[in-house]
Backbone:
C-alpha cells in the first residue's frame, strides 16, 4: 500500500504555476529520489510533504488520511543546512527527540531515566560514527559530520518517512561518497521510506529505488508548471552493486 | 602594502589602545596646571591632589548629616536602582519578546503597540511617574524600565525571528510542542542574546538613572553630582564621572564574561 499519495496537486505562486497537476504515490519502504533543474519546484514539493507550505489545489494523503496541517513526528527532515541545533552538544542533539517524547512538560529528562536514554543516543551516534565527537557543539563539526548528526537526530525520532532536501550537496565528493554508504546502510537497516531531493543524478540513482524527474515543459512560460517527465525504477541488482562501492 | 592590510603587533595594539587615554590625561594635567598658574583658586580644572583630597573625604569620612560614607552609600543606592530596573526590564522583555516572536497571534496584537510605545520619550513620562508613584524608589526604577524595556523587547522579537525557519520545522518533526520548542530551542538560544541586549541597554539605563536622581533623590551618584554642582565642586564631579564610567565598564565586562562562560556554543554559532 502506498504511504504517500499525491493527487492532482497544483502549486501556484502569484500567477506563476510551479507544480502542475502532479500525481504520485510512494510505497512504503521505498527510496524515492527527485531530480530536476533548479527552480522547478522540488523543494516546494518537499515542503508540502512536511506541511510547511500548502498546495493551491489537489490533495496529499498520508497513510490513507489527509496530511496533517502542521509538521509531525511521522515525517522527519534533513535540510541542506541549519538542520541541527547550535546550542546543543552532539549528544544532546540526538538526545533531544527522546526527551521531547518522554517529557511533555519540560522536554528534558533528569536523573536515572536519562542514563538509559543516553545509552540509546550513544548507540545511534556510534552508528553514524560520531561517538567520539559527542561533547562537541555543531559549530565545531565539519559539514559532513553535521549532516551525519542531522541524520542521526532525524532517525532516532523513528519517523515513518524521511524527507531530505539536498542533504549532501554542500559536501565535498569524498565526504559525500562516505555518507552515501552510511545512508544506504541506515536505510537498509531501518527500512524507512525516504524521499530525497537532489541535483546530483548519480546520487539519485545510487541511493534511490526510484528516480522521479520533475521538469517544466517551457522554462519561461509561467502558465505551464513542472510535471513528472520520467519515473524510473532502479533495479535492486544495480543498486547493491553501486551501493557496495 | 595597503592601509587596510597593515596590522599592529601585539605590543603595538596595547600601546595604541592606551594612547588616547594617556593623551587625554596629559592634556588635562597641562590645562589644569596652566589655569592654576594663572589663578591658584581656580575651581574649573582641579589638580589631581585636590581631587584626591575631595574623594578621600567622600569615601573615608563619615558625613556629618547622615553618618554615612557618601561615595559608598551613593554607589550602593545607584547600583541597586540600576540592577533592579534592568532586571525587571530584562525579565519582562524576555518573556514578552519570546512569546511575541513565536506566536503569530501575539505578534499581530503587540508588535505595533510596542513600536508605538517605544517612541514615548521616557523622560517626558517622568513627571507622570512622580505624580502617580511619588518621588521614591519606584519611580526611578520604573523610569529605567520604561527607558530600556521597549528596545530590549523589539530586539528579542527580531532575534527570535532570526532563528532559521528550518530549525523550528525540524523541532516540530522531532515531536516538539509549542511549549517544548520554546523551552528547549528558543529560550536557550535567546539567553546569550538577552545579554547582548542588556549590554546595549546599559548606557540608556545609566542615563535614565542619573536623570531621575538629578531631579528627585536623597542619595545616588547622579544626585551627588547635581548637588555639588551648586558649589562648582569640580573636584568631586570629575572623579564621580570617572567612577560612574568605570562602573558601567565593569558591568559590561561582567556581562561579556557571563556570556562566554555560560554559553560556550554562542561564539561559534554566531560566526557560522
Ligand atoms: N514562497 C514563495 N513565494 C513565491 N514563489 C515561490 C515561493 N517558494 C518558491 N517559489 C518559487 O517556486 C519555484 C520553485 O522553487 P523551489 O525552491 O521549489 O525550486 P527547487 O526545485 O527546489 O530549486 P533548487 O534546485 O534551486 O533548490 C521558484 O520559481 C521559486 O521562485
Ligand atoms: Mg531546492
Residues:
Amino acid at each position: 500500500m502506498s504511504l504517500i499519495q499525491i493527487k492532482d496537486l497544483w502549486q501556484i505562486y502569484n500567477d506563476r504555476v510551479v507544480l502542475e497537476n502532479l500525481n504520485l504515490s510512494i510505497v512504503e519502504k521505498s527510496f524515492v529520489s527527485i531530480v530536476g533543474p533548479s527552480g522547478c519546484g522540488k523543494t516546494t514539493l518537499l515542503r508540502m510533504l512536511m506541511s510547511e507550505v500548502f498546495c493551491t489545489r489537489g490533495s496529499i494523503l498520508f497513510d490513507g488520511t489527509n496530511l496533517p496541517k502542521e509538521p509531525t513526528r511521522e515525517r522527519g527532515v534533513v535540510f541542506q543546512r541549519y538542520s541541527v541545533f547550535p546550542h546543543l552538544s552532539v549528544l544532546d542533539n540526538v538526545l533531544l527527540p527522546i526527551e521531547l517524547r518522554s517529557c511533555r512538560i519540560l522536554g528534558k529528562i533528569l536523573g536515572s531515566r536519562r542514563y538509559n536514554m543516553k545509552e540509546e543516543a550513544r548507540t545511534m551516534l556510534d552508528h553514524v560514527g560520531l561517538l567520539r565527537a559527542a561533547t562537541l557543539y555543531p559549530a565545531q563539526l565539519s559539514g559532513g559530520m553535521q549532516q551525519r548528526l542531522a541524520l542521526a537526530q532525524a532517525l532516532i525520532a523513528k519517523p515513518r518517512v524521511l524527507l531530505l532536501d539536498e542533504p549532501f550537496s554542500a559536501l565535498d565528493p569524498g565526504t559525500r561518497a562516505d555518507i552515501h554508504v552510511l545512508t544506504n546502510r541506515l536505510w537498509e537497516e531501518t527500512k524507512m521510506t525516504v524521499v530525497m531531493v537532489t541535483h546530483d543524478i548519480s546520487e539519485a540513482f545510487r541511493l534511490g529505488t526510484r528516480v522521479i524527474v520533475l521538469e517544466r515543459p517551457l522554462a519561461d512560460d509561467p502558465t505551464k508548471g513542472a510535471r513528472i517527465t520520467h519515473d524510473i525504477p532502479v533495479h535492486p541488482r544495480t543498486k547493491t552493486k553501486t551501493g557496495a562501492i | 602594502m595597503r592601509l587596510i592590510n597593515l596590522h599592529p603587533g601585539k605590543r603595538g595594539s596595547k600601546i595604541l589602545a592606551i594612547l588616547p587615554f594617556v593623551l587625554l590625561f596629559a592634556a588635562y594635567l597641562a590645562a589644569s596646571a596652566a589655569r592654576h598658574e594663572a589663578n591658584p583658586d581656580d575651581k574649573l580644572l582641579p589638580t589631581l591632589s585636590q581631587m584626591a583630597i575631595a574623594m578621600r573625604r567622600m569615601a573615608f569620612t563619615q558625613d556629618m548629616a547622615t553618618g554615612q560614607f557618601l561615595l559608598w552609600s551613593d554607589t550602593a543606592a545607584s547600583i541597586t536602582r540600576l540592577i533592579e530596573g534592568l532586571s525587571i526590564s530584562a525579565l519582562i522583555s524576555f518573556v514578552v519578546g519570546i512569546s511575541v516572536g513565536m506566536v503569530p497571534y501575539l505578534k499581530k496584537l503587540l508588535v505595533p503597540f510596542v513600536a508605538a510605545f517605544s517612541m514615548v520619550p521616557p523622560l517626558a513620562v517622568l513627571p507622570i511617574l512622580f505624580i502617580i508613584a511619588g518621588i521614591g524608589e519606584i519611580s526611578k526604577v520604573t523610569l529605567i524600565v520604561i527607558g530600556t524595556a521597549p528596545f530590549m523587547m523589539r530586539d528579542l522579537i527580531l532575534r527570535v525571528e532570526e532563528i532559521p525557519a528550518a530549525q523550528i520545522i525540524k523541532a516540530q518533526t522531532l515531536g516538539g510542542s509549542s511549549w517544548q520548542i520554546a523551552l528547549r530551542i528558543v529560550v536557550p538560544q535567546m539567553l546569550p542574546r538577552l545579554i547582548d541586549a542588556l549590554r546595549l541597554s546599559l548606557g540608556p539605563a545609566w542615563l535614565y538613572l542619573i536623570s531621575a536622581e538629578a531631579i528627585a533623590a536623597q542619595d545616588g551618584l547622579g544626585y551627588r553630582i547635581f548637588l555639588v554642582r551648586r558649589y562648582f565642586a569640580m573636584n568631586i564631579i570629575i572623579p564621580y564621572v570617572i567612577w560612574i564610567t568605570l562602573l558601567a565598564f565593569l558591568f559590561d565586562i561582567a556581562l561579556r564574561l557571563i556570556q562566554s562562560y555560560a554559553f560556550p556554543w554562542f561564539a561559534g554559532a554566531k560566526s557560522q
The first strand of chain A starts at residue 2 and ends at 13. The interface with chain B takes residues 50, 52, 70-73, 75-77, 79, 81-83, 85-89, 96-97, 99-101, 104-108, 137-140, 153-154, 157, 159 of chain A (CB under 8 Å).
